[in-house]
Amino acid sequence: MRILSYISMSLALLWACSDAKSPEENTASEVANISNSVTLSNEQIQAINIRTARIQQRNLNNVIKANGYVDVPPQNNAVISPLIPGYVRKVNFLVGDNVKKGQVMAELESMEFIDIQQQFAEQNAREGYLREEYERQKLLSAKDAVSKKTFLKSEVEYRTTVSTVAALKSKLALLGVNIDELSNGAVASRYLLRAPMAGSVSKMETMIGKYIDPSEEIFEIVDTKHMHLELQVYEQDAGKVAKGQKVWFKVPSKADSIYEGEVFLVGKDLSESKRSINVHVHIHGDESRFTVGMYANATIVTQENPSNTLPVTAVVTEGGHNYVFKKESGTAGEALFAKVPVITGMESDGLVELRSMEGLDENDEIVVNGAFYLINAFAGSE
Q1: For residue 267, what is the enclosing H or E element?
Q2: Closest by alpha carbon to 374, among 21, 53, 36?
Q3: Which residue(s) pair with 156 in the sheet?
Q4: Same domain (yes/no): 70, 138
Q5: What is the CATH number of the domain that holds 293?
Q6: Burial group, residue 184, by CB count within 10 angstroms (0-12, 13-18, 19+)
Q7: Tell me: the pLDDT tens digits for 60-73?
Q8: Residue 16 burial (CB < 10 Å; 0-12/13-18/19+)?
Q9: What average pLDDT does the segment 239-257 reach?
Q10: Is the pLDDT confidence value at 8 over 50?
């Protein structure tokens, strides 16, 4: 307010000095209202810091504001938990480390693991014996040398054991055990937790000696090759969003940078609690600049409108009508500014649309700073 008062006082002082000149000088330099125009001396122009610019054609966009976060597809995120309980004996990776698919993340020691191997060894050996017994009983049964009941009993025992061995093999395969080594009598006390995919470790919650059961998550791995935005768009704007629309967004950690993306998928289900839909946005450029979970402020461009524009500071209102000031030629040491009525439209990013160019030309110099003082000077000279 002090700055405005100072400029107003300076402007008034300049006008007062102008009035103290001779009648001939006053004719050349006083503020005058001649056919909807204002004439100012160079001193007055400098005092109120008048600046001009030309009308520019820009895209004033219809946009939707949305918030969301950086995410990856479900197939690019993995949680690692033990299949059976055990004590952590070794941890090979920390948060932020890159891992390859199949690398050993941790080693767990488990009595249950030992028991499964023992059961397999016993049942595998028993299967061989029962197979021979079953084949023998089958031959005897064919010659009616044994009762059918005896043959059926040997068949049931054999097939049950085959099924048990197959189940134990599957369990051991999931635990990463080499069946051939186990068949040779080698029993391990530790089993290995391996990375199911390549990526970076985003979470690690364990320590040496901790007892872990299958319900606990030890690691999380994220593959950041296909990061995207998940935006929430409220239901009143949901019908305006479509695949292929341009998206501009910012993230808090890089607030001075604007990034670009494109709408790829538009959700069809409306969240009852948030009254919004999900919008999936593909990020253009280097995705490694971002971190999964980052908050994002986004602008979805639903329509681009080529428009004749000026900065919003160029337009002033008087008597319910909008005006701009066009600089015209004046005499030496002066400039004449014509007040031109305009019809304005949408505003975006500090620009305002001129819906009518009547009385204006694209080469005209329009006041973009100081129009407020000109409208006051014009009113005072009437």
Answers
A1: none
A2: 36
A3: none
A4: no
A5: 2.40.30.170
A6: exposed
A7: 778 889 999 999 99
A8: exposed
A9: 90
A10: no
Other Cβ atoms within 10 Å of 308 Cβ, number: 19
Residue where one domain finishes, among candidates 303, 319, 347:
303
Whether pLDDT at 345 is above 90: no
Shared domain for 22 and 156, answered yes or no, is no
Length of the chain: 382
pLDDT of 26 over the 70 cut: no
Identity of the residue numbered 33: N
Identity of the residue numbered 151: F
Give the 3-state secondary structure of residue 223. coil
Give the type of residue at 185: G
Quick one: which of 172, 197, 203 has its CA closest to 186? 172
Predicted TM-score (pTM) above 0.70: no
Does residue 257 sit in the same domain as residue 201? Answer: no
Query: What distance separates the 2 farthest-apart alpha carbons in the chain?
Result: 145
Same domain, 203 and 258: no
Do 122 and 81 sit in the same domain of this protein? yes
Q: Please check whether residues 90 and 201 belong to one and the same domain.
A: yes
The whole-angstrom separation of Cα 338 and Cα 356 is 17
In the predicted structure, residue 331 carries a pLDDT above the cut 50: yes
**Higher per-residue pLDDT: 159 or 10:** 159
Cβ atoms < 10 Å from Cβ of 27: 11
Least confident of 185-189, 193-197, 213-217, 249-253: 185-189
> What φ, ψ does residue 103 adopt, rounded to 5°?
-70, 145
Which domain, by its residues, includes 30?
A: 2-61+307-381
Same domain, 297 and 312: no
